[in-house]
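ESCALATION

Customer reports they have been waiting on this structure for their group meeting. Please prioritize. Original submission:
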Amino acid sequence: MLSRLVNRTAAILAWLPLRANQALGATLGEIAWFARTRARRVTEINLAICVPDLSEAQRRRIARQSLRETGKTLTESPWFWGRPRAVVDAQIVETRGGELLERARAAGRGVLAVTPHLGSWELCNLPFSATGDLTYLYRPPRNAVMEPMLLAGRAHLGGRPARLDPAGIRTVIRELRNDGTVGVLPDQEPDAGNGVFAPFFGEPALTMTLLAKLAARTDPTVLFVVAERLSRARGWRVHFLEADPGIGDADRTRAAAALNRSVERCIALCPEQYLWSYRRFRERPTGERRTYR
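Update from on-call: job pushed to the front of the queue and completed.
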């Protein structure tokens, strides 16, 4: 029953014109704002931690817009997955830093494609899969009903899944050593024992070490990619950015700090489109947990 409902909802979202689809997503974000949801509370707390120099009014503006953009992310993903690839590709109206990807391909090395939870991150498979195979690491969603739709949608955009487990990690190491491309989301809290605390906007944040380990073992080119959503459904602007040079440092704490600096540079492109509602600072170096209340 739930599976049918999810699939029908996704089909409707894919059928809607992009402007109507994103307007619906923005409306969901407005509801989350005015209903004073947990997403709003977490967003406001994270912004107070990360950008304390901004006025309260400035942070509130970013917080409200962030919830609107997060709503668009929710509704537009089925649009990507349900439309022909050529239609989706045509909506990428500008690319900045594309020469970085060209150089990475020409170098004949593996590529680590790092995509923070920023803008339309589900779209970021497309530029890499257009020029070769892409394998991405993922965690299965908490609701198992969602997994078949997610995997089918990402396959439509050219991504092959590798679970974030020992077998999946072995798969991506093999891909990188064979000069393949591997996609990673860098800004989720890792499992216990797989992260270190490093500054993120000046605040200690539990940060993955997996990316540094992959970089050290396979010597890939590490590129960050952001699909910035343009206003009024005008499409997307894709940015490629070089990673901080310390991202493969043997010292995992220094490597994690370089990773976070790279994510900060990405966020600076379109801060309103970052997923500020994620409880990024829940774990603390003292062993306590932030309540986000």
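Sent to customer with the following note: The CA atoms of residues 166 and 213 lie 13 Å apart.
Escalation resolved.
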